[in-house]
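Here is the promised in-class demo. Please do not try to memorize the tokens; focus on the logic of going from shape to residues.
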């Protein structure tokens, strides 16, 4: 018989629910590590048909790691799953995992396309570079604004060191003479 698994992923622990033939056969928690989860699933659900979890910060990692372990991982739209999970009487991680397992069993979910790991790496590097460039510009503008208080008019030349920027006007400023 085939099993359907729901994962409610969080940073430290992941709630897991396994269903077979319309009934929950196991429910528990595991460390949020795809290798540990894969080992647990191979033990508790050797005939897994679908393994469903919601989109979130860890979903790209989980998707690719679980697929690499040979498990039928499916990432579903969190907003779509929320509508079904809100019907539960008590909102707990265990109940959410059970609801996701039920969605996997009946096939009522909207699968999302998870981007490749390489494209996510490129996207992360571009985002980090953009953030660093904006921060550098903000700090340079802040320093230029602060120096105007002391009569130092600094040109806006990005890339130059502060000593090169301030050197021409530093000795002529009375407030900074030794």
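The designed amino acids, position by position:
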């Amino acid at each position: 018989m085939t099993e359907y698994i729901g994962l409610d992923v969080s940073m430290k622990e992941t709630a897991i629910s396994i269903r077979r033939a319309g009934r929950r056969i196991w429910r528990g928690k595991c460390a949020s590590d795809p290798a540990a989860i894969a080992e647990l699933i191979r033990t508790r659900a050797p005939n897994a048909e679908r393994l469903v979890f919601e989109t979130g910060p860890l979903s790209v990692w989980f998707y690719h790691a679980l697929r690499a372990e040979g498990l039928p991982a499916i990432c579903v739209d969190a907003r779509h799953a929320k509508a079904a999970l809100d019907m539960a009487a008590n909102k707990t991680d265990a109940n959410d995992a059970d609801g996701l397992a039920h969605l996997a069993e009946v096939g009522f979910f909207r699968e999302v396309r998870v981007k490749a790991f390489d494209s996510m790496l490129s996207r992360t590097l571009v985002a980090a570079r953009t953030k660093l460039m904006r921060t550098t510009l903000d700090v340079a503008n802040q320093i230029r604004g602060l120096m105007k208080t002391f009569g130092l008019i600094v040109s806006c030349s990005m890339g130059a060191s502060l000593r090169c920027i301030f050197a021409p006007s530093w000795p002529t400023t009375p407030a900074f003479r030794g």
